[in-house]
């Protein structure tokens, strides 16, 4: 690992620790040349399927893009970072378990909406309004009506 201070590639691991959930290893390293200590994080490189977008184009699955969408939908809502990360993990797990090399973006979007619906109705509506690109207020109201009907049926 290249030292961020002097650029030397001769570094040694001083300490290693697993994260709480065991999917990231934190390593403290020391440069053999300048003595600088620094931290690296190691994780398994996942090969997730490509996303087939509405227009037929394809792009790599981007966990950070999903995280940003969830964060925007949950902005100023009483939802902890841990809850959002758990939601993200469930979405990534869903995509991973599809077993496909390519997955329709609509399936991913619907999964995110399902997860948000169970977490926070306002966040769900925010995400749905962007994801579904409502053309007018009537479409938006139809979505809200469906949400209210489901809420009454589950009460």
Taking the alpha carbons of the first and last residues, their distance comes to 56 Å
Cα radius of gyration in angstroms: 21 Å
> Low-confidence stretches at least 5 residues in length (pLDDT < 50)?
none
Widest sheet: strand order? 1-2-3
Number of helices, counting only DSSP H or I runs of 4 residues or more: 5
Helicity range? 40-55%
3D shape: elongated
SS content category? alpha+beta
Strand content: 15-25%
User: What's the story with the biggest beta sheet?
Assistant: 3 strands, antiparallel
Describe this structure as you would to a colleague:
This protein has helices spanning 63-74, 81-97, 105-119, 121-131, 137-154, and strands at residues 11-18, 24-31, 37-43, 50-52, 58-60, 102-104. The chain has 155 residues and is of the alpha+beta class. The protein has two domains: 11-43; 50-154. The strands form two sheets. Strands 1-2-3 form a three-stranded antiparallel sheet, with no helix packed on it. Strands 5-4-6 form a three-stranded mixed sheet. Strand 4 (50-52) and strand 5 (58-60) form a beta hairpin. Helix 3 (105-119) runs antiparallel to helix 4 (121-131) and helix 4 (121-131) runs antiparallel to helix 5. The protein is elongated, with a radius of gyration of 21 Å. The mean pLDDT is 90.
